[in-house]
Amino acid sequence: MTTTPEAKNVVLVHGGFVDGSGWRGVHELLRADGCTVSVVQNPTLSLEGDVATTQRVLDAQDGPTVLVGHSYGGAVISQAGNHENVSALVYVAAFAPDKGESVNTLIADPPPGAPVPPILPPNDGFLFLDREKFAASFAGDLPADEARFLADSQVPWGLDALGGTVTLPAWRTKPSFYLVATDDRMIPPPAQRAMAERAGATVSETGGSHAVYVSKPGEVAALIKKAAAGATA
Asked: Sorted alphabetically, which SUPFAM superfamilies does this protein's record hold (predicted)?
């Protein structure tokens, strides 16, 4: 059993196809609770680049910090979380790769019957989701206009981000927490549970789409605050 030191700093890392603005609801709740919150804006061109960007934000923290990742952001925090300021990791419907794994290897062999994310063929080295299928796959519990905005404002996701491998998974040495979105149609909930179990994470579950960090900010913030409070993992 490991007890995380109490942390007042939180760093939020977004996933692929989106930017950091989706964290606004979580940001507001954590700020209201007295946390110092930073939102990383990763270019999502390569895992290496995103880890470096995240580590620069971690460099600016003045003490123990909870590092939070959604979706592909889980791969980023798995590597960047080795930073000395990181006291705990929080995965929100996120990938948690082990050494030598990438998002690409984790999605390579989906279980029979699992929803297949509507990722279009690469265009000049970048990936997008089919706009017309975005809402159903990524944001099924958001208002239609909000889901449409996410679809229309997609950030290109680089193949080097998809294929970037983790070399030293921080969850092997840092306490971790995991929020499973049980209605996720991008990362199957059984895969989320398996990654959380492998990481030895403290697990919470909630009904929610892949965009659970937007649709359920209260539940996301509650798990982050648990990690920040020096909870036992």
From this structure: alpha/beta-Hydrolases
Handedness of CA 165, 167, 171, 172 (dihedral sign): positive
Question: Which SS3 state, helix, strand or coil, does residue 119 take?
Answer: strand
203 Cβ contact list (under 8 Å, min separation 6): 177, 178, 179, 180, 193, 196, 197
Count the domains in the chain.
1
Q: Would residue 140 count as lying in a domain?
A: yes
Q: Is residue 1 part of a domain?
A: no
User: 124: domain range?
Assistant: 9-228
Does residue 54 sit within a domain?
yes
Residue 197 forms part of a structural domain: yes
Residue type at position 10: V
Pick from 208, 2, 175: nearest CA to 92: 208
- Cα distance between residue 157 and residue 143, in whole Å: 24
* 147 and 133 Cβ atoms separated by less than 8 Å: no
Q: Which two tokens stand for residue 74?
A: 């889980």
* H-run or E-run covering 91: strand 86-92
The model carries a pTM of 0.96
DSSP string, 130-186: -HHHHHHHH-TTS-HHHHHHHHHTPPPEEHHHHSPPPSS-GGGTS-EEEEEETT-SS
Beta pairing partners, 10:
37, 66
Write the pLDDT tens digit of every residue in 50-94.
999 999 999 999 999 999 999 999 999 999 999 999 999 999 999
